[in-house]
Amino acid sequence: MWFVNFVRFTVFTVAGLAIRKSWNWLVSDIEPFPGSKEFDRELLDAEKRYKHLKYKKEEYNETIRKIR
């Protein structure tokens, strides 16, 4: 009887992990709706990245101009 319980425990554990991983994979690619907190957070992160990269590019361009 203990063997049946062990197999049942193992099967349910593996199935639970597989379902959780597949659900996270499905849900992670969904874009948030405009106006939601998640959308605002992603928008602010994208704007920060854009400004940072723009600043780094301007610094690079100034350095190249000084060298030439």
Task: Please characterize this protein's 3D structure.
This protein has 68 residues and is mainly α. The protein folds into two domains: 1-30; 32-68. The protein has two helices and no strands. It is elongated, with a radius of gyration of 25 Å. The termini are far apart. The model has no long low-confidence stretch (mean pLDDT 88).
How many domains would you count in the coordinates? 2
**Which regions are unreliable across 5 or more consecutive residues at pLDDT < 50?**
none
Number of strands: 0
Overall morphology: elongated
Distance between the termini: 82 Å
Radius of gyration: 25 Å
**Mean pLDDT over the full residue set:** 88
Secondary-structure element pattern, one letter each: HH
From the helix content, strand content and strand pairing, which structural class follows?
mainly alpha
Helix content: over 70%
* Main beta-sheet strand count, sense and barrel state: none
Percent in strands: under 5%
Figure out the total of helices.
Answer: 2
Give a brief rundown of this model:
With 68 residues, the protein is mainly alpha-helical. It contains two helices and no strands.
Secondary structure layout:
Layout: H1 2-28, H2 37-67
